[in-house]
Every structure is written in C-alpha cells, then in structure tokens.
Amino acid sequence: MDLWPWLTAALLLLLLLVQLSRTVRFYAKVSLYCAICFLMSIVAAAVCLLRHGGRTVDNMSIISWFVRSFKYCYGLRFDVKGRQRLTVDHPCVIVSNHQSILDMMGLMEILPRRCVQIAKRELLFTGPVGLIMYLGGVFFINRQRSSTAMSVMAEVGERMIRDNVPIIPVVYSSFTSFYDPRTKLFTSGTIKVEVLDDIPTKGLTIDDIPQLMDTCHQAMRSTLLRISKASQENGATAGPGAQPAQ
Questions:
Q1: pTM, whole model, 2 decimals?
Q2: Confidence label for 237 from pLDDT (cuts 50, 70 and 90)
C-alpha cells in the first residue's frame, strides 16, 4: 500500500488547520520550538565537545550563538537598554524574571561571557537539552528537595555579602502581547530588556539579606510594569505569566 498519498493529505490537512485554527497554530509553533531546541542541542553539543572536549563555561559562547538564531524563526526582536552595565571587571550576580520556555532566547541575548547559570535539576534529564546545559557549565539545583535548594541559595547569599559581590537585575517585558498560552497566542513581537543599575552589597551583613532581596524585587517589579506597559501592542497588561523575579 502506497502511504505517500495519505501522508501528503495529512500534511495538507495540518497546514490547513494551522491557517484556520489559532489553537492548532499555537501548538504547532510550540512543538516546532521544542524540536528546534532538541536538534540544535545535538549539533551544539557536538561542536562543544570538538572545541573544548567537555564541560566548561566557555561552551556558553557556542551555545549562545545557536540559541540567538532562534529569534529569526519566530520574528522576535530584543530591544536592550543598559547593556553596558553588564560589562564589568569583577564578579557579580545577575538576576532576571522568568516567564516561559522562550526565556532562553532572552538570556542568551544579553548574558556576558563566562557567566555561570543556575537551573532546576529536572532540566538535566531532558535529553540533548540537558546535555548541552551540562556542557555549558550550568549549576543544577534540586528544587524538589527544598532544604537543599534553600541551603545552596543561602550559601550564595552569604558569599555575596562576604565578598561584596553586587547584584545586577535584568528585566524582560511581558511576553503576553505576542505569546500567551491562555489565549493560544504566538506571533512575532518585540521584547524590551532593561539592565538596571547594580545593587551593592558592600557593608551589608547576613541579617540584611531579606532587605536586599526585597530591594531587588521591588526594583524589578516596577521596571517590569513600566516597560511591559510601553511594549504592549494589543492593549494586554502584564499578566500572571510575567513574574517579577525568580
């Protein structure tokens, strides 16, 4: 039995549904995004192994090149303000707001070289994507064991205070004007990115960490609301999908 006529008919039906149904179009684009992530991760992993031979943060420059190309497939543009604030000659902690699976593109758009990222441990087991994150030197935290995650973050906070490491907040505008799973919206759009002034930790003590976190959260929240309002093209507001900080 010749399957080609059936496969052709199925493909044509899918293309028709993509054109007629917003829901089908949304899931088709999300599926394509995941497929691109998997395929590019395989290629990038091979390049990283050939170039550096194993796990190192230097692989992030290679990974970043691949991920930044994703935006052209989806018609996305990043409007970055304050990028020069990330050009520093000393250690710093970069904190950004988390929104969706598209965050990866935004991170690779602005992160400086040799920047070590933190991610949940579950991502390590996502096949080629987990492998490329491992090769890129990502530090994985087991969020299922809250005591372990809290102890790691507490240790980071203590070291920041001890070594006077500043925090640099990076805020991405809400995606809801072009990407919204609730309404099955997925179109092209512009993401405004603002790198805020660093928040110094010099002179602080361990007891000041809660206040430091609140200062960072408030600065990011106010910026998120301001730049999201400016970037909304369809009148949508910054909804629950635009979390101030994670």
A1: 0.83
A2: very low
